[in-house]
Structures are given as structure tokens and as C-alpha cells.
Amino acid sequence: NAGVTQTPKFQVLKTGQSMTLQCAQDMNHNSMYWYRQDPGMGLRLIYYSASEGTTDKGEVPNGYNVSRLNKREFSLRLESAAPSQTSVYFCASSEPYRGSSTDTQYFGPGTRLTVL
Amino acid sequence: QKEVEQNSGPLSVPEGAIASLNCTYSDRGSQSFFWYRQYSGKSPELIMFIYSNGDKEDGRFTAQLNKASQYVSLLIRDSQPSDSATYLCAVMLSGAGSYQLTFGKGTKLSVIP
User: Fold this and answer.
1) Mean pLDDT, to the nearest integer, of B103-109?
2) Cβ within 8 Å of A, B 50-89
3) B99 in A contact zone (CB under 8 Å)
4) How many Cβ atoms from other residues are within 10 Å of residue B107's Cβ?
5) Which of A54, A55, A68 is nearest to A45 (CA)?
6) Which of A28, A20, A74, A72 lies closest to A49, judged by CA?
7) Residue among A44, A50, A108 whose CB faces B43 most closely
8) B51-84 per-position pLDDT tens digit
9) Is residue A58 predicted with pLDDT exceeding 80?
10) Average of pLDDT values for A44-62?
11) Confidence class of residue A24 from pLDDT cuts 50, 70 and 90?
12) Does A108 touch chain B (CB under 8 A)?
């Protein structure tokens, strides 16, 4: 049981290049999320997918697109990378916590992206 | 605008002492509250969550929630050097069909041996 996995772990891009960050979870969770974390800014939600087949914008969606490929996989695409997108990107998945109505999120190891 | 505020620290405590981490939130509709621990260069890991007023204990950790004051705290008893990390407070507004978290910027805790 690997939990939430992300690839790649590190990436360096030039301005204007595109790339896709991959995320997969093996916990059979319905909901998945993409966050970015910048120094002094905390974790900010980019996009989320409440269930397979649905995606919605979070707090900072500009410059990104997502695809919920199936229940396990949720990818994040940067079509034309900019230096402002230099950050650490975390994927997370969640399930309703047993015995309550709340929902706990579990995070992947992160992708460290630098855009030059 | 939903906001979650934490003191950035660093908060320094001696080994064996109680570390007290505080968090305030602006949205009165917030239903669930989470504490995550994040070691440098690692991903956040869940310590505990709370959704009822009062205290919730799990080992050396106690979460306290006061919805009237919009305040949630985390106490770490018998602090250890391994507790040195950044602690993230997160709140969730449930009932929207998806479970979005709003995070604070985190408090850096340093436990001095």
C-alpha cells in the first residue's frame, strides 16, 4: 500500500515549456487535490476533484489544468510554465473519516518544480 | 475570504516542556479542524482532527476547540526534539459536496535538548 505517489520528484523547466505532474493513490479515495506550497504563503489549493469525472477550481487555478484520468489518478498540467510557478506541488487524496462526517486528507511526497 | 491565522514562530521550548500552538479562523461555518506536522522538505502528515467543542487527546497531543471564539489549539506534552517541525492548522467547510481545506501558514516549533 503506497498511499499517494507523485512523479517526478524534481523538475527544472524553462519559461514557456509545458509539463504534466502525475499523482496516483491506491487507497480507493474518491476525492483528490492539488496544492502548491510557497515560502511564507502556506499551502494553497489549485484544483480538486470531488469524485471521478469532476474537477473544480481552487484558490489559485490560473496557469494550470487538471485531468482526473480515473479514480486512482489525478494529473496537473502546466501549459506554458512561468517563473511564478516555481513551487513545491503536493497531491492529496481523502476519504470520509469513519464514524464522522469529516474528511481527512493524505498527502503525497511532493514535486519540487523550478521554472527558469 | 476564509482566513486561518497562525503565529509563524519560531516557537522554542525546552525538551520535556509543553508546547502550545494556536490558530484562529475567520469563517464561522467551519466544521472540522486539523493539525498537520511537516518536517523540512517533507509532506504534511495528519496529527489529529477535531470537530466538537472541547478537548481531544491522542497520546502526547491534545487539540482544543472553541467555536465561539473561533480558536483551535494544539498542545504537545513532554516535547521531544523529534517534535521539531512546522505545524499547520487547517479548517474545513463541510457540506459543500467536497471537502476543501484552508491552511494557515504554519508555526515552526523548535524543541531544544
Assistant:
1) 95
2) 51, 88
3) yes
4) 22
5) A55
6) A74
7) A108
8) 888 999 999 999 999 999 999 999 999 999 999 9
9) yes
10) 91
11) very high
12) yes
Cell digits for B105?
501558514
Grid-cell match 513532554, residue found: B78
**Residue B30 grid cell:** 467551519
Nearest to B32 among A42, A45, A102 (CB): A102
The grid coordinates of residue B40 equal: 523540512
Q: What distance in Å separates the CA atoms of residue A21 and residue A108, rounded to the nearest whole number?
A: 12
Pick from B17, B1, B3: nearest CA to B89: B3
Cis, peptide link before residue B10, omega less than 30° from 0? yes
Amino acid making up residue B61: F
Higher local confidence (pLDDT), A3 or A51:
A3
With a CB cutoff of 8 Å and minimum separation 6, the contacts of B73 are B20, B21, B22, B23, B63, B64
Q: What is the 3-state secondary structure (H, E, C) of chain A?
A: CCCEEEECCEEEECCCCCEEEEEEECCCCCEEEEEEEECCCEEEEEEEECCCCCCEECCCCCCEEEEECCCCEEEEEECCCCHHHCEEEEEEEEEECCCCCCEEEEECCCEEEEEC
Sign of the four-CA dihedral A47, A8, A29, B61: negative
Residue A112 has pLDDT above 90, yes or no: yes
